[in-house]
Design brief:
This protein is α+β, with helices and mostly antiparallel strands. It is 21% helix and 43% strand. It folds into three domains: 1-39; 47-131 and 197-202, no CATH class; 137-190. The longest helix is centred in the N-terminal third of the chain and has 40 residues, at 2-41.
């Protein structure tokens, strides 16, 4: 009789352990599912850092598939496609080429309103030739150089920043510099076109 009772107790305990382990494994497996699903929800929104290259637009062009990279409330980069909108670049605008594919280039404005517009253009409509930059570029950089109130004019102080070239006159340029209230003149030889080429962008290709 004692042996019978002992066997029954052993069977009950074994059954309890099997059920408990099965429930726990099922719970653990289910708890992992949301994480895996979240990783797959936005497969096209992976971002990468690119080392781009400075180029100049050689003719007016309309951007194909324009978009911007903004940031959310947590300061995380967010891809935003610009649908039903047309964006163009002017001849001699400066751009950063993010990457090339066949006969097209994905680019971002070198300077402009934030967020900078990005998109795709034909490779034939831009040039990497640095000799074109100084005499033609619509945008430029000044790094700790003297500014003036006119051609051969009075000194207005040392300036650093990025701006838009508004006028050219015999080795001089008039520029609108970010954060400056009035236009300033600079010697053409003092300009730089070393725009920041580190770009965070979506992995389109």
């Amino acid at each position: 009789m004692k042996k019978l009772i002992f066997c029954i107790v052993i069977m009950v305990l074994t059954t309890f352990l099997i059920v408990s382990c099965t429930d726990r494994d099922s719970h653990d497996e289910n708890s992992e599912l949301p994480e895996v699903m979240n990783q797959q929800e936005q497969p096209n929104n992976q971002l990468a850092e690119y080392k781009g290259q400075v180029a100049i637009i050689t003719e007016d062009v309309i951007l194909k598939d324009p978009y911007v990279i903004t940031v959310d409330s947590n300061n995380n980069p967010v891809y935003q496609k610009l649908e039903n909108q047309e964006f163009s670049l002017n001849k001699n605008d400066m751009v950063i080429v993010i990457e090339e594919r066949n006969n097209e280039c994905r680019i971002v404005q070198a300077f402009g309103d934030i967020p900078l517009i990005r998109g795709t253009i034909e490779k034939s409509k831009l040039s990497y030739d640095k000799s074109l930059f100084r005499d033609n570029a619509n945008q430029a950089i000044v790094n700790n150089v003297m500014s003036y109130d006119g051609v051969d004019g009075n000194e207005k102080g040392i300036q650093s920043g990025v701006g838009v070239i508004l006028e050219r006159q015999e080795g001089w340029v008039r520029m609108s510099i970010l954060m400056e209230e009035s236009d300033l003149w600079f010697k053409l030889e003092s300009l730089s076109f070393e725009f920041d080429t580190s770009v965070i962008d979506i992995m389109h290709y």
